Amino acid sequence: VDPGTVIVLNGGDRFTPSLNVNASINYPAESMQMKVSLGDRCEGGTWEDFPGTGMTSKALSLPAAAANATSFASVQFSDFDFQLSDCYKASITHDNLPPEILFQTYPTTSLQEGQSAQIIYDVRDLGVGLSSVECRLNTVVHACVGGRATVQIPPLASGSYSFETKARDVYGLESSRNVTWQVTAANRQIEH
Predict the structure, then answer these.
(1) At 183, which helix (H) or strand (E)?
(2) pLDDT in tens, 58-77
(3) Cβ-based burial of 119 (10 A; exposed 0-12, middle 13-18, buried ≥19)
(4) CA 182 to the chain's CA centroid
(5) Could you give the 3-state DSSP secondary structure of residue 12?
(6) Which residue among 9, 22, 97, 108 sits deepest, i.e. has the most Cβ atoms within 10 Å of its Cβ?
(7) Helix, strand, coil proportions of the chain in percent (round to 5)?
(8) Rounded to two decimals, what is the model's pTM?
């Protein structure tokens, strides 16, 4: 943490999987009290003793908010003459959503034997980021990557098929989606 920084949440992390965070507070001027508030305007909070100058920390509970919402904490100081400092703020995003998986192109409900298929998918995490992506055609694992990717499936024998994509983010939140289709035997002419 930069010594000139007044307030940071969770050591300066941009994301957190928890609503409980730690605020590290560093004020270089002599101060008698501080008031820590949820929000970015130093509204609310309770005045409490501040240990003069230097660093202190305080546990905070972020408000339950919309998915992957950014929350703020702010701090203000009062000196021995009851003069108020500027309002200092920090933010962190509560990452509580799993990765998104979108199939953009996939086989129709039925293909004939001998036809190949193409699957285009997009996997992304709007929070802390992906840690793994796995794809399966029925029980066979295929190499997969995050982002937008194309999988070419060679001609298949008749039967039922499922292509599943699973994704996990750095915090362990998981999601999966799949598409299914049938491959039917080609009609054959029987000659007598």
Answers:
(1) strand 174-184
(2) 999 998 878 899 999 999 99
(3) buried
(4) 35
(5) helix
(6) 9
(7) 0, 60, 40
(8) 0.81
Query: Which tokens in the block code for residue 99?
Result: 């990765």
DSSP state of 3: T
Angstrom distance (rounded) from CA 62 to CA 93: 10
Q: What angle (nearest 5°) sits at the alpha carbon of residue 104, between those of residues 153 and 154?
A: 5
d(CA 40, CA 91): 8
Kind of pairing, strands 159-169 and 174-184?
A: antiparallel
Query: Can you tell me which residue has the tokens 């590290």?
Result: 24
CB-based contacts of 173, cutoff 8 Å, min separation 6: 17, 95, 96, 97, 98, 99
Nearest to 89 by CA among 30, 14, 13, 8: 8
Residue position matching structure tokens 């300066």: 12
Position 190 confidence tier, pLDDT thresholds 50, 70, 90: low
CA pair distance 102, 63, nearest whole angstrom: 30
